[in-house]
Target: DUF2397 domain-containing protein
Amino acid sequence: MQFCGTGKKNKKFCYQLSKATVEIERMVIRVENLFIESSSLEPTLLERIRMNLEKIPQMQNEEPEKIYSWWNDLGSDFIRLNQNYQDYMRELNSVKAEQMMKTQESHTAKTKRSRTSGSTGTVKTYRL
Model:
């Protein structure tokens, strides 16, 4: 994609976007529009996987179309479980990180207060 100015003077100002640049722009737009549902580990999903795994012996006698459908359902449930797990862990870790930052801020504030308290100019430090 190429953008050039019009007229003789502006011909030297020409910008060209590479294919990689266009793809990066598209990816950024997709990421911005990404909607992540609240993360939870659904017990019903685990139960569905367990029930489908118990069907393995009976699937040996089924028609190929039914086996294919069963296998796709099992695979989709597993993929969804894995995604939910990753989202849950990401959310859990972000909460932990936020709590750690608050603890660090609190510690820093206490240290600053302790340094300014005391009229003799001595520094007092408190351990948490």
The chain has two domains: 1-35, 39-101. The mean pLDDT is 75. The CA atoms of residues 5 and 64 lie 62 Å apart.
